[in-house]
Amino acid sequence: MIKKHKIDINRLLEKVRTHPDSNKMGMIASHLGIVRGSSRDNREVIGVEVDYDLKTINDIIQNIKILPGIIEVLVDINEGRLEVGDEMLFVAVGGDIRENVFNALMKTVDLIKRTASHKKEIFVDQIEGRLK
Prior knowledge:
By secondary structure, this protein is of the alpha+beta class. The protein has helices at residues 9-17, 54-65, 98-116, 124-131; strands spanning 27-34, 45-52, 70-77, 80-83, 87-95, 117-123. It has one domain: Molybdopterin biosynthesis MoaE subunit (Aldehyde Oxidoreductase, domain 3, Alpha-Beta Complex).
């Protein structure tokens, strides 16, 4: 199990900013996914169990980096049992113009969530049922 950590957003953004080709960058966009207290169907959530396929994430990063105008893509994750408010996924994309960067950011996040992650929500009613 990977130990939960605080994602150092400033360090990661600075790493993008200091990329050797940073003079070609006009924008950095980022995504910070956190565990929310309700599911899409409005059930109360107390946490999630999440794991990622690191090889798939690395493949996604490499494929996004070859898109037009993209200079750098960085990803940081937290795995294991996470509680409401915990940081789950951070993605930063640096590139030339917003159309390219926003598109690459959305593709990266969508692909990671769809193909490289498995998330199981833990609901309040599941815990309450065990206590009764």
